[in-house]
Write a structure and sequence with these properties.
With 352 residues, the protein is of the alpha/beta class. It folds into two domains: 224 residues, Rossmann fold, CATH 3.40.50.300; 105 residues, no CATH class. It is built from 14 helices and twelve strands. The strands form two sheets. Strands 6-7-8-3-9-10-12-11 form an eight-stranded mixed beta sheet, with helices on both faces. The longest helix has 18 residues. The radius of gyration is 21 Å and the shape is globular. Bound molecules: adenosine-5'-triphosphate and magnesium ion. Adenosine-5'-triphosphate binds next to strand 1, strand 2 and helix 1. The site of adenosine-5'-triphosphate has 14 residues, from strand 1, strand 2 and helix 1. It comes from Nocardioides szechwanensis. Its main location: membrane. It is a peripheral membrane protein. Keywords: ATP-binding, Cell membrane, Membrane, Nucleotide-binding, Transport. One of its GO terms (cellular component) is plasma membrane.
């Protein structure tokens, strides 16, 4: 975090879409850094800007219809404002993305193997067709597709959901990217396949020492995979820090809500599952002050109408450097223990 020499440096990134109803500010002043060999988890409800911010890292937004400000440096190359040839080079050589929807990302009319081979040949123009096919089979084997020699000639619809997701990962990794962005790589899969895919991602990361951004709704995935976590709400970073701290002593009520709404926060059978009340806000007319205040149960603990009128700055909390949160509460740790932990994991509160 805050390492200006890291492989990925996102600084004050904002992404805005002009729409007939007015501008949609999907990402607001987002900053984070990520080193090689490290994994960053990005969490937040639907529509919080996770995909939009990550797509900006690959320069995937239509420049004519998107206003992007700030800076994104990948291996020292500035991505914001980079021209199409520059972007193409970047996407092949250093960055790859595994998309949310594998079926949509694989072309239905082309065989899986040809799509993999083409992805390889685009960035290895001197490779023969035979080399590219061999590489495609090798990658399918690497991601655990059985009989890769014959499955290489299947069409995407002949693959199961889990196999398609593996094929997407193979496609993402075929050019050994230094940075891999995995957008909900396992959401559509059953738990067993999900665990296998996550293991696979971890193995491949170790092998290639790549930087990985994993986007997910699932804090269980975060706990297993991420070194650091960035929590997004309504296009903003609301909490960011080392995974352990974010999961054990979070300081922002929205993060508490995410923790309370997952089933496995504690093995205690008495633990309760409490969904976050209300809906994510409209980005066309976001709430004043702290975007989360209309849904926050702790507004009355902050003097005056600060929460409704003033956007909290992203500031260091009581966990020390490297953990920042956007919240006006003066004593978040105490409130968390007394009101949140006591509800969702009473054993943990009694133990200490
Ligand atoms: N091209 C676009 N034009 C207008 N608004 C857009 C466009 N693309 C995305 N948005 C809006 O930007 C916001 C953030 O979208 P994004 O896809 O980043 O959400 P997300 O956090 O990835 O959600 P999910 O968990 O559902 O994938 C949403 O409100 C979305 O409707
Ligand atoms: Mg998304």
């Amino acid at each position: 975090m805050n390492d200006p020499d890291a492989f990925l440096v996102v600084e004050d990134l904002s992404v805005e879409f002009p729409t007939p109803d007015g501008p949609v500010r999907a990402v607001n002043n987002l900053s984070y850094t990520l080193g090689l060999g490290q994994t960053l988890g990005i969490v937040g409800e639907s529509g919080s800007g996770k995909s939009v911010s990550s797509m900006a890292v690959l320069g995937l937004h239509d420049a004519d219809r998107t206003k992007i400000t700030g800076s994104i440096r990948v291996g020292g190359t500035e991505v914001v404002g980079l021209n199409e040839p520059g972007l193409r080079k970047l996407r092949g050589n250093s960055v790859a993305m595994i998309f949310q929807d594998a079926l949509a990302a694989l072309h239905p009319f082309y065989r899986v193997g040809s799509q993999l081979a083409e992805a390889y040949q685009v960035h290895h123009p001197s490779a023969s067709r035979r080399d590219a096919r061999r590489k495609a089979i090798e990658m399918l084997d690497r991601v655990g597709i059985p009989q890769p020699d014959s499955r290489v000639d299947d069409f995407p619809h002949q693959f199961s959901g889990g196999m398609r997701q593996r094929a997407m990962i193979a496609m993402g990794l075929i050019n050994d990217p230094s940075l891999l962005i995995a957008d909900e790589p396992t959401t559509a899969l059953d738990v067993t396949v999900q665990a296998q895919i996550l293991d696979l991602l971890q193995d491949l990361q170790r092998e290639f020492n790549s930087a990985v951004v994993i986007i997910t709704h699932d804090l269980g995935v975060i706990a297993e995979m991420a070194d650091e976590v960035l929590v997004m709400y309504a296009g903003r970073c609301v909490e960011y820090g080392p995974t352990k701290e974010i999961l054990v002593s979070p300081e922002m009520p929205y993060t508490w809500g995410l923790l309370s709404s997952i089933p496995d926060v504690s093995a205690d059978i008495d633990a309760r599952l409490i969904p976050i009340p209300g809906n994510p806000p409209s980005l066309l007319s976001p709430p004043s002050g702290c975007s989360f205040h209309p849904r926050c149960a702790h507004v009355d603990k902050v003097p005056g109408d600060l929460c409704a009128t003033q956007l909290p700055e992203l500031l260091e909390g009581s966990n020390g450097p490297g953990h920042v949160k956007r919240c006006h509460l003066a004593n978040p740790q105490e409130v968390f223990r007394r009101e949140v932990l006591a509800e969702i994991a009473p054993d943990l509160v009694e133990e200490s």
